[in-house]
Design a protein that fits this description.
The protein has 315 residues and is of the alpha+beta class. The chain contains 12 helices and 8 strands.
Amino acid sequence: MEHCISRQHILNCSFSSWYNCFRQISIQSKIIPLDDDFVEHLLEDGIYLPDGSESGNSSDDSENTDKAKKAFPELQSIVGSKIQDLGGSVFPKLNWSSPKDAVWIAAGNTLRCNNFNEIFLLLKSSDFVTHDLSMPFEICEDQSKGSLKYELILRKWVEVIPSMEFRVFVKDNEIIGISQRDTSTYYDTIVTHAEEIEREIEDFFDKHIYSKFFDPDFVLDIYRRRENDILLIDINPFGRVTDSLFFDWSELLAGGPHQEDIFRYVDSPGHVQPNPYMSYGYPKDCMEFASGVDTAKIVEALKVENLKQERNGTT
């Protein structure tokens, strides 16, 4: 029988639903409500900055110029203020997803943002964000949006060491699986300290998470900054919509592996998996142009490149 995820479970995993409960063990963040006009602007075709942005618009054609005439001065002001409150650099996301698939458009290929324009370009270029905005409940029996309100989440920028990111699968309020987050790289430090890491994650869960979330089944993303110092990064739906990494969802839905196999990681350089974001390393539009699928789309890709050059001060 196929596992069904309820609409309420998806809503419970929305950032603002759980952040206040766990803010003491998470990264400092600011939540900014988004109005419908801005959401619609994100969903419009093309990549261009709103009117009044310091870099101008990406096109002179009348259609995009009309679209770009929309301005969001109040939102830009709020975002600028919140960025300063968080130390000057932030990691942006919406209710559920971050625009990590759009890192190709960012200067330096990073999700670290210092202003509204950088945030906007990432959000506008992200398939993950578009999915959140258009089909957040596609896996649910009840797919209606209802009164869903979208929010921009600004998280204080923290330099994260990929080797210390882990995903924790929880069923009936018990850990049934722990996976290395970056499945494409071998890290000797994980192999060396595997037992210690597993014990610390279980202690963290027992002390800070157990029975405090709305649902008994969920998925945690955590970051181990140092010994006995773990941060909660995100809470995800328990189901196939969430990447199971080194596990299989049929295995997890059945109750998980045996206790001795609860922590899975790359145990040798020969066991790495392909990077799941490799397909997002270059604009799909450009790849389609190169293969002759859709030559018209190269125009948008060139506009994006012009924006990047303007932001970097090049010609």
